[in-house]
Amino acid sequence: MTEALIRKKPGMASVKDMPLLQDGPPPGGFAPARFARRIPNSGPSALFMFLTTFGAFSWGMYQVGQGNKIRRALKEEKYAARRAILPVLQAEEDERFVREWHKYLEYEADVMKDVPGWKVGESVYHSGRWVPPASSELRPEVW
Amino acid sequence: MASAVDASGNPIPTSAVLMASSKHIGIRCYAENLEFLKCKKKDQNPEKCLDKGRDVTRCVLGLLKDLHQKCTKEMDDYVGCMYYHTNEFDLCRKEQEAFEKKCSLE
Question: In A, residues 61-80, which contact B (CB 8 Å cutoff)?
Fold first, then answer.
């Protein structure tokens, strides 16, 4: 009701004849707004980008190769050291093994002395090669 | 491990000692090592290669004693570093250089 009293115009028959109260543009309209795309065609060319990428990749792969060379040299040093000391360790182990093996053969001869036709320490295989003994009896202190 | 030598001054052939002197062993005991490996290749039986094995052990233990007498401190440092870093060569370069400089570069 108060709206009609404020915005009335003389000779108005109903509320529907009230003057308009709208939010609108300023007189003369708004300033023009640009909405067109303006993506420039400047910057590195496709060939330049490709060559830069390819160059960076190649340099990286070259560094990978150099790093692998260094790592391989380190590994070779370790393997060469192991190869150098292998005979000493094997010789020591052979001495220990032979001592234990003779003790075991004595034990076997003692156990099987009443069995006719038993050859102490004979190989159980027919290949003729020497095969390491399969039993775990030789190192009772480990087990 | 207190030191690399036992009571009578012989270096104990532990892994640290052997790896530390591996370059010297590889050069000075090359002939004995090769003979032992050739014997092993022919026949794997330990009893057949005992004499060559004794040659190898004699050569290496003699070499260790010789190295230890010639450059005691450098060898002890290098062996200690190897023991600390569990035989990692790359972590003991300084001690390795000092050892090889003092004890007749191979």
Answer: 74, 77-78, 80
Task: Assess B80–A contact: CB distance below 8 Å, yes or no.
Answer: no
> How big is chain B, counted in residues?
106
Contact status of B37 with chain A (Cβ, < 8 Å): yes
Question: In chain B, where are the structural domains located?
Answer: 15-102
Residue A59 vs residues A6, A53, A54, A56, A65: alpha-carbon distances, Å:
81, 10, 9, 5, 10
Q: What residues have CB less than 8 Å from A78, skipping those under 6 apart?
A: B89
CA separation, residue A134 to residues A83, A114, A124, B10 (Å): 26, 24, 11, 36
Burial class of residue B2, CB neighbours in 10 A (0-12, 13-18, 19+):
exposed
Q: pLDDT tens digits for B25-50?
A: 999 999 999 999 999 999 999 999 99
Q: Using CA of residue B62, residue A74, residue A92, residue B34, what is the dihedral sign?
A: negative
